[in-house]
């Protein structure tokens, strides 16, 4: 991950995981966003106006959970010399949420509180990824959990490329980066939707395993600059 070429790899990995988790919780946990938590404002307002969900207020709990997670992520980064320590803990927490999902499933615990409890753990994990993106912005080609800014940049690049008849090299390179970022997130969304519909929140185990294994493979990489 230390070499520039591996920025493509970590960008694709993190965007895919964010899209996967965000869609997984939306599909399997009562329309709750775990990565792009501001989307829960919209869901909360919609459910309140329609009056069809007495548990709509739970969506607001994602914000304190997210804020606490980001703060803890900052603390972890400040105390560790290993660059990807935050991502290791993200993987561990995703694994923990998956374990809870499995236990609740096999014990036939299907209450609303068990669903939200597991989803909030996933929100916490995504908060750590958001913290990583802010602290180590040069490690990826852009934000990995929110695509609005990436789509905006890709649109600007397309405009320049059309204007210059695709001769502007910097815009070509920028568009490639945004294509990988957006494409990774979209791929994760499709996989998360399929997994969430078939198996609920249990498939969150997959990104957890991937994150931990990737960290163990690259745990020698030291922190250089936090942005």
Helix content: over 70%
How large is the radius of gyration? 18 Å
Q: Enumerate the spans where pLDDT stays under 50 for 5 or more consecutive residues.
A: none
Tell me, briefly, the overall form.
Answer: globular
* Head-to-tail CA distance between termini: 17 Å
* Mean residue pLDDT: 90
Report on the structure:
With 227 residues, the protein is mainly alpha-helical. Helices cover 70% and strands 0% of the residues. The chain is built from 8 helices and no strands. It has helices spanning 6-28, 39-50, 62-79, 85-106, 112-135, 148-163, 169-199, 205-218. α4 (85-106) packs antiparallel against α5.
Summarize the structure.
The chain is mostly helical and 227 residues long. The protein is built from 8 helices and no strands.
Descriptive labels:
227 residues; mainly alpha
Lay out the secondary structure:
Elements: H1 6-28, H2 39-50, H3 62-79, H4 85-106, H5 112-135, H6 148-163, H7 169-199, H8 205-218
Helix pairs in contact: 1-5, 1-7, 3-5, 4-5, 4-8, 6-7
